[in-house]
Each structure stands twice: as structure tokens, then as C-alpha cells.
Amino acid sequence: MRIFLAGATGATGTEFIPLARARGHALRAHVRPKTAETHALGRDTDAVVCDLADAAALEAGMRGCEMVVSLVGTMRSRFGSGDTYESADIGSTRQLVAAALAVGVPRMLLLSSFGAGGAGAYLQMKGECERLVREAPGLRWTIFRPSALVSAPTAEGNHGRRELLPGLMALGGALRCLPGLRGVADDWRAIPIAVVCEAMLAVVEAPRDGEVLAGRHLWAMA
Ligand SMILES: NC(=O)c1ccc[n+]([C@@H]2O[C@H](COP(=O)([O-])OP(=O)(O)OC[C@H]3O[C@@H](n4cnc5c(N)ncnc54)[C@H](OP(=O)(O)O)[C@@H]3O)[C@@H](O)[C@H]2O)c1
Predict the structure, then answer these.
(1) Local structure of residue 162 (DSSP, 8 states)
(2) Does the beta carbon of 192 lie inside 6 Å of ligand 1?
(3) Is the CB of 83 under 6 A from ligand 1?
(4) pLDDT tens-digit map of 122-152
(5) What is the span of the domain harbouring residue 94?
(6) Of the four, 27, 100, 121, 189, which is 20 to 30 A from 44 by CA?
(7) Closest residue (by CA) to atom 1 of ligand 1?
(8) Is 35 in the pocket of ligand 1 (CB under 6 A)?
(9) What ligand 1 atom has the least distance to the C-alpha of 91?
(10) Is 111 in the pocket of ligand 1 (CB under 6 A)?
(11) 3 state DSSP class of 216
């Protein structure tokens, strides 16, 4: 499948790309111009280097794709570099949805967060991103709501692959053993990025339209 991948240069994108390519998917990885100067994807001939606010460039890059996968996001610690929840998460979702509708990409997978729509600026923002996708007319969507993402440390430079938190992982594992708490524990416990990527590829290959998938689904799918 030909996939437009937004957020390709982040921690999740870095793990998603080789897995997707190994399974035969063709990726158009979005890279911001400033990031392209330093990131290896900036030299990838299939990369789409543009600002998402450049609608014409975005639509040209997305044309012919069968699906959009959005892994875009920011965090408060990066507000100083210019990204905010409005510009990064909400703005990108709005721009990606508009481009998908404009060029006829039928499906979108949004990586959201456990608790989206709940209390606090981050979860409220995630709820708004989900609303933009759910309410896009005619768009077939799937939303992922993982808890904290973790990955094994590597020497690669990116936004910082999240290291495994042994205490948190052990606590999540212990909770699963309590009667009736397995689903809740799987929603709540930290989840390896590789597991989320496997679950995303499962959805790419076997659509789960209109579903919001939390940790309990993602662990099971991977
Ligand atoms: N980390 C967690 O524990 C966790 C838990 C649950 C959900 N999530 C969500 O999962 C998603 C992926 O997380 P992650 O940890 O892989 O993220 P990440 O490493 O911080 O990567 C974020 C990606 O978004 C891109 N981006 C940021 N602002 C942008 C903008 N204005 N326009 C275009 N691209 C922009 C970044 O591009 P540049 O490289 O150019 O900056 C990067 O490719 C995010 O939505 C996050 O909120 C994360």
C-alpha cells in the first residue's frame, strides 16, 4: 500500500518506516524543511519535504496515496522552538485531513493518546485532533490511543527514543495478573513503540474503520 506518513522523523516514525518497508509498503515520508537539513530522511528520494501549511505541496505529495498515517505531535518542552499543541498536533491534523479530502485519499490512521478528551491541555488537544478526523466527511478513519510509548535506546539521533521504564513495565505486568484488571492494565501500561507499529501495520493491511483502539487492542493485535 502507498502510505503518506506524517511525523516520520519522530520516535514512532523511526521504528515504523523499516517495519512498513519490510512488509512491502511504499512510504511517502513527510519531512519539515528545517528537519530535512539534518535528518537522513531529508535525502530520501520518496520523502515529501514541505511545511504542512503549504497546501499545494502537501496535496502534491499525498496524491495517489491510499492512506495517511499521522504520528505528528509535540510536547510542552518543545514550545520554545515554536511548536505548540495548536500548530503541531491540531494544525497538522487539520492540514492532513484537508489534503486527504482534496486529493481523495480514503483512509487515515491517527496516533492519539490514552485518555484523549480528558482533563488537561494535552488530553483536550488530543480530543480535538480526534474530532477533526472523526468528523471529516467521507474519510475512513482509525484512532490509536496508546499509553506512554517506550523503546530500546539506540545511538540514532531523533527526538529521543523513549527508554524502557523497568518499574513501570513491571507494575503494568503485575496489574494484568489481578482478576478482571487485564484490559484496564493493558490500556494503562507503557507500550513499546514496536508493538504500536505492528498494530498500525495490521490496521493498514486489514482496515478497522471507525474504531478507537486502546492499549488492550494494540497489545492483542501485535
Ligand atoms: N511519547 C509518548 O509517550 C506518547 C504517548 C501517547 C501518544 N503519543 C503521541 O504519539 C505521536 C507520536 O509520538 P512520538 O513520541 O513518536 O513523537 P515525536 O518523537 O515527538 O515526533 C513528533 C513528530 O511530529 C513532527 N512534528 C511536530 N510538529 C510538527 C508540525 N508542526 N508539522 C509537521 N510535523 C511536526 C516532528 O517533526 P520534526 O522532526 O520536524 O520536529 C516529528 O516527526 C504523537 O502524536 C504523540 O502525542 C506519544
Answers:
(1) P
(2) no
(3) yes
(4) 999 999 999 999 999 999 999 999 999 998 6
(5) 2-221
(6) 100
(7) 149
(8) yes
(9) 31
(10) yes
(11) helix
Cβ pair 130, 112 in contact under 8 A: yes
Q: What is the pLDDT of residues 56-96, one digit of tens each?
A: 999 999 999 999 999 999 988 888 888 899 999 999 999 99
Regarding the beta carbon of 93 and ligand 1, being less than 6 Å apart is answered: no
7 lines ligand 1 (CB under 6 A): yes
Residue 144 CA, ligand 1 centroid: distance in Å:
14
The percentage of residues in the chain with a pLDDT greater than 70, rounded to a whole number, is 93
Residue ranges with strand state E in the chain: 2-6, 26-31, 48-49, 67-70, 107-111, 140-145, 149-150, 191-192, 211-214
Ligand 1 nearest atom to the CA of residue 190, by list position: 3
pLDDT digits (tens, 9 = 90+) for 33-46: 999 999 999 999 99
Q: Report the pLDDT value the prediction gives residue 163, as an integer from 0 to 100.
A: 58
- Domain count along the chain: 1
Which residue has the least CA distance to atom 28 on ligand 1?
Answer: 88
What CATH number is attached to the domain comprising 213? 3.40.50.720
Tell me how far apart the alpha carbons of residues 68 and 143 are, in angstroms, rounded to a whole number. 12
